[in-house]
Amino acid sequence: MRSGLVAEFEGPDGFEHAFVRLRDLGYTRVESWSPYPVRGVVTRLPESIVPWIMLAGGLTGAALAYLVEWWCNAYAYRLDVGGRPYDAIPAYIPIAFETGVLFAALSGFVAILGLSGLPRLHHPMFEVDGFERVAVDRFWIGVDAADPMFDDAVREVLAAAGALRCERIGEGS
Known about the structure:
Blueprint: E1 4-9, H1 12-25, E2 30-33, H2 39-42, H3 50-76, H4 89-115, E3 139-144, H5 153-160, E4 165-169
Antiparallel strand pairs: 1-3, 1-4, 2-3
Helix pairs in contact: 3-4
């Protein structure tokens, strides 16, 4: 969110009511900041794609490890030891599993950083007076100006829900 309208709430009730009301009215670019998870807000968030990215990374890592082991033992450097087959699947399982876990963990880490927009050294919310209290006892909602539904009615919806104050942030504030 580079620009838009933000509102501060004293408690979770008005905060939750405002968030639900904005979503019901069709606003899609709504962000929330709170000191702890609020059930009505968390349950309305979209499903995360991080588990699917981790699954793809894990399967890719396991397949890649198996392929490398097979290529080394059965194709590039064939060594007959005790009459075992060149493609010894049980011998490849531990390495393939561990590599799959490694790739899943790394892809999850990168996906969380990338999808959350980190590392971010500056955010327009940092310029709002009193925003530091979000880590203690305040709740904030922001509606991005890029939202197709964004207009002056946003301020009225937030004020009706009990916002302590509404403020424009970012470009053209």
